């Protein structure tokens, strides 16, 4: 039973260190930002596609006049 308490205590120390360690938090923040961006792209995929197509159509039509 004592060995189990030592293992659990070591686990809490690791969690405490990870929360205090700024490098770990920056990685978590980066992952969360990427997840949000990917989610937004998936949600608004059709709107983004139509926007890009209209931009390229406008560039193509205006470049013909040059």
Word description of this protein:
- The chain is mainly alpha-helical.
- The chain has helices at residues 2-20, 22-43, 45-63.
- The radius of gyration is 25 Å and the shape is rod-shaped.
Brief write-up:
The chain is 91% helix and 0% strand. It has 66 residues and is mainly α.
Measure the end-to-end span.
82 Å
Stretches where pLDDT is under 50 for at least 5 consecutive residues are none
Strand-and-helix sequence, N→C? HHH
Helix tally?
Answer: 3
Q: What is the total number of structural domains? A: 1
Q: Provide the residue-averaged pLDDT.
A: 79
Radius of gyration: 25 Å
Helical fraction: over 70%
Tell me the overall shape: rod-shaped
Structural topology:
Blueprint: H1 2-20, H2 22-43, H3 45-63
Which features does this protein show?
single chain; 66 residues; 91% helix; mainly alpha
């Amino acid at each position: 039973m004592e060995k189990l308490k030592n293992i659990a205590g070591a686990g809490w120390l690791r969690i405490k260190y990870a929360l205090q360690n700024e490098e770990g938090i920056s990685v978590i923040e980066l992952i969360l930002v990427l997840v949000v961006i990917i989610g937004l792209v998936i949600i608004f995929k059709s709107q983004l596609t139509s926007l890009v197509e209209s931009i390229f159509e406008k560039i193509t039509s205006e470049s013909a006049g040059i």
